Amino acid sequence: MRILVIDDDPAIRELLRCFIEKAGYQVFEAENGKEAEEIQRRTPADMVICDLIMPVREGIETISAFRKNFPGTGIIAISGGGTISPDSYLQVARQLGAWKIYSKPLDFPGLLKSLEEWKMEKGIT
C-alpha cells in the first residue's frame, strides 16, 4: 500500500515515513497540498496523511481537492492546532471527508491500526 505524507515540517515527515515504512508500507512525502496533488497525479497513493496547518495550500483545501480529484484515496487528517485547538480543525476535516483524524502528538499505534483497517476494507495487498 502506498502512503503520501503531507506536512510542512520535515522532521514530522521523516518521523512518519520511517515509522510507516517499518510497518511495510511504501511512503512518499510532500511539504504542502499543491506538491501532494502533483505527486498523486504521477504516483497515486492509496492513503494520504495530511497535516492541516501548512503554507502554500493548507490541509482543509487539500482534503477538498483530494475528495474531488481522487475520490478513492483515503485521508487521515493530523493537526497540532494553530490559533485554535486542533479539535476544531480536525472536525472540519472530518466533515470534508477525512476518514480518520488524529491530534499531534500522534498516536502511532492507532495510526498503524487505521492504515491496516483501510488496507483490509479496500482489499489492498
Provide a concise account of the structure shown.
By secondary structure, the protein is α/β, with parallel strands linked by helices. The protein has helices at residues 10-22, 33-42, 59-69, 86-95, 108-122; strands at 2-6, 26-30, 47-51, 74-79, 100-103. A five-stranded parallel beta sheet has the order 2-1-3-4-5, with helices on both faces.
What this model shows, in words?
The chain has 125 residues and is of the alpha/beta class. The chain has a single domain (2-110), classed as Rossmann fold. Helices cover 47% and strands 20% of the residues. It has 5 helices and 5 strands, in the order βαβαβαβαβα. It has a 5-stranded parallel β-sheet with strand order 2-1-3-4-5, with helices on both faces. Helix 2 (33-42) packs parallel to helix 3 (59-69). The mean pLDDT is 93.
Fold blueprint:
Layout: E1 2-6, H1 10-22, E2 26-30, H2 33-42, E3 47-51, H3 59-69, E4 74-79, H4 86-95, E5 100-103, H5 108-122
Question: What attributes does this structure have?
Answer:
single chain, 125 residues, alpha/beta, Rossmann fold, five-stranded parallel β-sheet, 5 helices, 5 strands, 47% helix
